[in-house]
Amino acid sequence: MDSAPIGNASEATAPARTTIRGLAGLVQRGLIGPDTAQELEKVGERYAVAVTETVAALIAQDPNGPVARQYIPTEAELVEAPGEIDDPIGDHAHSPVRGLVHRYPDRVLFKLTHACPVYCRFCFRREMVGPGGDALGKREVEAALDYIRTHPEVWEVVFSGGDPLYLPARKISQVIAGIDAIPHVEVVRFHTRVPVVLPEAIDDAMIAALRGRAAAYVVVHINHREELTPEAIAALRRMSQAGITLLSQTVLLAGINDDSEVLAQLFRALVANTVKPYYLHHLDPARGTSHFRVPIARGQEIVRQLRGRVSGLCQPTYMLDIPGGHGKVPIGPNYLSATDSGYEVTDPQGAMHAYPEAGGTP
Question: Is 44 among the domain residues?
Answer without folding.
Answer: no
